[in-house]
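REVIEWER CHECKLIST
Item 1: Sequence provided? yes
Item 2: Single chain? yes
Item 3: Sequence as submitted:
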Amino acid sequence: MKRQLLRNDHKPKNIVQSIERASALLDLLGQAPQGLNLGILSEMSGLNKGTVHRILSTLTYLGYVRQIPANKNYALGFKLAELGNLLLSQLDLRNTARQHIIDLAEEVQETVHLVIRDNDEALYIDKVDLFPKEAGLQMVSRLGSRTSLHSCAVGKVILSGMSEKEIQTTMDLDDLERKTEYTITKASDLMRHLKTVRNKGYAIDNEENEMGIRCVAAPVFDSGGGIVAAISMSGPAARIGLKQIKSKFNRKVRDAALEISRNLGYAGNGTIRIAE
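Item 4: Structure as written out by the authors:
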């Protein structure tokens, strides 16, 4: 399937096409743990093989791409891991939240995520996974992965702190992707749902992003009361019932998020307010 290379957000006039194309190829490789060959990359990107080969040769020389000896496929290079670790180590938020999400994961005995917004997507910047090899269930979340804001609990929490105008500017509300049969895909339904999130102080993903996975998320506030991140606990829907979320798990996640917020200088009570 051909991949759309151009982003939908505001594109600068002086963008360098070769860098944009290199970024698109890296994105494709990031979704393929076993790597991709030249022909498939050419087909998926819509670029001719000569162009793809030149870009890959340059990226390989610089360490951003490597070739897997067993199959000669191209894969992400270790230079990206090095840069990613440097970036994450510079994020005060991640360092501040780390022990709190570990404690929460141990308390609830489920997977906990720390997520921030990057344009119109939720970006996973930390994860404590107590069940990495659980049979039959493999969450798509991983460090550096992204998902749609409207379909996950952390994304909906982040959206709840934004005005309707800002949400409309950030997202294409006329084209909300359906991830599962339970995903909210109508703008009016999303806006009504976000009002509920604001009133309750937390959001639930009831198999809306992945079938079989249920999540509950709460906001992390900065010193000014703005939502800068969200944390969530996630696990099998068969094990995490809605009644449990409403009776106890939401409070545990909210308490952990509030502790992180306090360490960031927040002095409020956890009420979600729309940013001005």
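Item 5: Key structural point noted by reviewer: The first strand starts at residue 65 and ends at 67.
Item 6: Recommendation: ____
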